[in-house]
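Query form — protein SDR family oxidoreductase

QUESTION: What is the three-dimensional structure of this chain?
INPUT:
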Amino acid sequence: MRLKGRHVVITGASGGIGEQIAYEAARQGAVPVLLARNVERLKEISARIKAQYGVSAPHMELDVSDREMVEAVFSQLLKELGGIDVLVNNAGFGVFRYIEDIDLAEMEAMFAVNVFGVIACTKSVYSHMKERGSGHIINIASQAGKIATPKSSVYSATKHAVIGFTDSLRLEASRFGVFVTAVNPGPVETRFFDLADETGDYVRNVSRWMLRPEAVAKRVVAVMMTPTREVNMPGWMDVGSRLYRLAPGLVEKVAKRAFFQK
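ANSWER: The structure tokens for SDR family oxidoreductase are given below.
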């Protein structure tokens, strides 16, 4: 009953982790609000949620990199819903390239979506949550934000930024009863890699360790409206990132071959 009737707004809800969060939130009685650029896909997911769980799932088009659009969409949502209980900043993408091959336009796009989009969406709901004295902002970051590996320099930089933003926001928001959580999954079996890993080499190398989006979604929904600092998956990768903070040189030396799996 913790989530019964709660409005859970999810960016990047047209597939992958975002789609699965919507299903799991609906299963637990919440009202998932679906935001993404692919409106047709959102319609399909909304209809499926209604059919399977008997829960309405409002949906709207949103490009999180368009600041004017972000402001307009969230203003409309707050007006129509009367309140937003949980915001899941899930929209994001990555492209894996060595530094000499990085396209600067891709770099700007990654920061626009992965970082500036997260901040813009958060800012659109934070004052509302602060005034209510309750709410939860969940930012989907990545283990790449804790351990940067070859070919992921820009993507890792964006996720480092998300973790830094989340840590600062958590301290600020705690004064007003608003929870803030960072979710740091390792590689997840989604279409993310259709773009990030065009050759398919990385997916082939790490397929046995990849997380299912349903598993990540269950963990995310399980911590909604609770004062959870971080969700780190899988456990062994979390241990690795902790060791990395303690002895980065040693970890880089021992795990160098694994780091070049991309």
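ADDITIONAL NOTE: Residues 173 and 184 are 20 Å apart (CA to CA).
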